[in-house]
Amino acid sequence: MTNVTIEVNGTTRSASVPPETTLLELLRDHFNLTGAKVGCDVGDCGACTVIVDGKPINACLMLAGQADRRSVLTIEGLATRDRLHPIQKAFEDHGSLQCGFCGPGTILSAKALLDENSNPTVQEIKDALSGNLCRCTGYTKMIEAIQAAARVLRAETAERTTREPAE
Fold first, then answer.
1. Alpha helices per DSSP H over 40-93
2. Residues contacting residue 18 through CB under 8 Å, at least 6 positions apart
């Protein structure tokens, strides 16, 4: 067995799992975080995308042991009980998802992009989503939603900056 301790959505969690256990299995089967989906299970579809130490990864390709002592953000950790994250809200407002199966992975890929680049071009958005397959909607509304979320996040950052006292 492999002992794994990770910070998941801001909370330290531990489990003892067989060494072949993937991060996806750890999240879903041991921590009951089912937002990351089991899609292709070979890293092609992006349904299992989570953010590990700030980078989007396919949880089906990472062993749980490789995540030991790292920080993991899943879709469950993005919103608060009272407020959707601006990316989630933009996806909702733009009707970007139909069945929703690809939603968690796509939204987390978008978050990783916007954390690195607050004003991405359409091509940069397409590149960031290139590992996330959607069979229902196509990507136009997703791109529009990410652009809208970027505007909201930039405005929130500007507002926080103007409220902070000068040193």
1. 86-93
2. 1, 2
Question: In degrees rounded to 5, what are phi and psi of residue 162?
Answer: -75, -25
Q: Does the global pTM surpass 0.90?
A: yes
Topology of 2-77 in CATH? Ubiquitin-like (UB roll) (3.10.20)
Owner of token pair 């990783």:
112
Q: What average pLDDT does this structure show over 53-60?
A: 98
Say what the alpha-carbon torsion angle 132, 99, 73, 64 is, to the nearest 10 degrees: -70
Q: 């996330």: which residue's tokens? A: 132
- CATH homologous superfamily for 86-163? [2Fe-2S]-binding domain (1.10.150.120)
44: CB partners within 8 A, 6+ apart: 133
Query: Strand, helix or coil at 92?
Result: helix
pLDDT of 35-50, one tens digit each?
Answer: 999 999 999 999 999 9
Q: What is the DSSP letter of 22?
A: B
Quick check: 20 pLDDT over 80? Answer: yes
Tell me which residue has tokens 């953010």. Answer: 51
